[in-house]
């Protein structure tokens, strides 16, 4: 039996903010939480992808908590070995076929040595190729035992032909390693796309796996990805930690890539992620960067970003929002188009939802997602509706002991 949702909501907020503070500045006193709050802390740590990092950095000494973190680190380390082996096979195949491939985000952070094996979970492998290389890359993935699962507007998802998702709290060593294939690096914020592909693709690509052109290019991608997640209220604490680690290795001049002369638009979307970062990771970003971004960011979003917390823009905010991210609209016209898209979703959006229902464990058997969009919007406007992804991990935390492997 779950506790009342109001208690769950308050507990998630309290534990999430405590986890963020402990990861950013380890050494805090072990919280005097109830058993219920510790269970919610395991749910929050799993949902935010930081359990293995807390295993290394947190000083909290509750035995069941330590066993849970240690178990998560073990699962992530074993899965990392599988991912590293798969990347080697992709590299060998790409070299043979003359394909230039860029491993993105988590893969790149590991390659830079910012994380040791077992510290950072990777839900999947993200790869970037040029549009004309997509077809031969898909052939390579098929040779490696992958089949296409579904396609969305910003990537195509491939899964192993053999293997099924594992229902577990947090990370599990046996979870299949999916691959997301990108030909563009872009995010809808909330409806118009920001595209930074040309900043990300190498200037002189070579067959095989390629690095980002610079640490500034990697930072641009991390910030845009984080902006998309803030806009959709799906941010993870892991995203902020990624940015903090990379920021500490960057010189002041490295940030200039954000204002690349070939970019069609100023990086207005980078301010909210960095403002949120500064709430927890102080002095990670030069003040001059904030000053430049303040000029780029629309006034409403600039104002709202000053007071946002991790909980408010992540799955730790239990209730669904009818119009998530509308404050990211850059004009009244765009806001109007966004509202219309929420009330009357496009065929593309309807297909995306159907693909998610078919492929995501946390959506299985949920009648809510099968209701028409109008009814869902009306319900969210008239009463609190809990997020299904959040409730999935909360239920998992209450159904399994904190030390379960």
Low-confidence stretches: none
**Total number of strands:** 8
> Averaged pLDDT, please?
93
Largest sheet: 6 strands, mixed
What spatial form do the alpha-carbon principal axes imply? globular
Number of domains: 1
Strand order of the largest sheet: 3-4-5-2-1-8
SS-derived structural category: alpha/beta
Radius of gyration over alpha carbons? Answer: 21 Å
Q: State the order of secondary-structure elements, H for helix, E for strand.
A: HHHHEHEHEEEEEHEHHHHHHHHH
Please state roughly what percent of the residues sit in beta strands, choosing from under 5%, 5-15%, 15-25%, 25-35%, 35-45% or over 45%: 5-15%
Determine the N-to-C terminus distance: 22 Å
Helix percentage? 40-55%
Helices, by number, come to 16
Describe this structure in words.
- The chain is 49% helix and 8% strand.
- The protein has helices at residues 5-24, 35-47, 51-57, 63-97, 106-111, 134-143, 197-200, 215-231, 237-247, 271-280, 287-296, 299-305, 332-343, 347-359, 373-382, 388-399; strands at residues 100-103, 124-128, 146-151, 156-160, 178-182, 186-188, 193-195, 208-209.
- The model has no long low-confidence stretch (mean pLDDT 93).
- The protein has 405 residues and is an alpha/beta fold.
- The longest helix is centred in the N-terminal third of the chain and has 35 residues, at 63-97.
- It has a six-stranded mixed sheet, with helices on both faces. A two-stranded antiparallel ribbon has the order 6-7.
- Strand 6 and strand 7 form a beta hairpin.
- The chain starts with a helix and ends in a 6-residue tail after the last helix.
- It has one domain (5-399).
- It has 16 helices and eight strands.
């Amino acid at each position: 039996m779950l506790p009342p949702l109001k208690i769950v909501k308050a507990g998630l907020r309290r534990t999430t903010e405590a986890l963020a503070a402990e990861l950013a500045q380890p050494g805090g006193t072990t919280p005097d939480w109830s058993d219920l709050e510790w269970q919610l802390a395991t749910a929050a740590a799993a949902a935010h992808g930081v359990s293995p990092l807390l295993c290394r950095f947190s000083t909290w000494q509750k035995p069941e908590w330590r066993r849970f973190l240690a178990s998560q680190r073990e699962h992530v380390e074993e899965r990392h070995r599988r991912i590293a082996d798969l990347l080697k096979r992709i590299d060998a195949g790409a070299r043979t076929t003359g394909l230039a491939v860029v491993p993105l985000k988590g893969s790149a952070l590991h390659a830079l040595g910012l994380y040791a094996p077992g510290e950072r979970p990777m839900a999947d492998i993200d790869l970037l190729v040029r549009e004309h290389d997509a077809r031969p890359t898909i052939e390579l993935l098929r040779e490696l035992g992958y089949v296409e699962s579904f396609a969305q507007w910003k990537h195509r998802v491939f899964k192993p032909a053999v293997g099924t998702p594992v229902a577990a709290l947090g990370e599990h060593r046996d979870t299949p390693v999916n691959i997301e294939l990108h030909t563009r690096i872009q995010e809808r914020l909330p409806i118009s796309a920001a595209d930074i592909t040309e900043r990300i693709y190498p200037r002189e690509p070579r067959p095989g796996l390629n690095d980002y052109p610079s640490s500034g290019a990697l930072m641009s991608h991390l910030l845009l990805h984080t902006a998309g997640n803030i806009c959709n209220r799906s941010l993870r604490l892991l995203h902020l930690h990624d940015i903090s680690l990379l920021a500490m290795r960057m010189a002041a001049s490295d940030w200039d890539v954000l204002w690349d002369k070939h970019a069609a638009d100023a990086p207005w979307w980078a301010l909210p992620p960095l403002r949120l970062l500064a709430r927890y990771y102080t002095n990670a970003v030069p003040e001059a960067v904030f000053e430049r971004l303040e000029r780029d960011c629309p006034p409403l979003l600039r104002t709202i970003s000053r007071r946002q917390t991790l909980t408010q823009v992540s799955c730790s905010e239990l209730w669904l929002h009818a119009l998530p991210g509308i404050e990211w609209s850059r004009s009244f016209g765009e806001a109007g188009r966004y509202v219309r898209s929420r009330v009357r979703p496009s065929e593309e959006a309807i297909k995306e939802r159907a693909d998610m229902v078919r492929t995501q464990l946390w959506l299985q058997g949920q009648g809510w997602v099968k209701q028409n969009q109008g009814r869902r919007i009306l319900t969210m406007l008239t009463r609190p509706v809990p997020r299904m992804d959040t409730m999935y991990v909360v239920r998992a935390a209450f159904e399994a002991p904190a030390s379960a492997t």
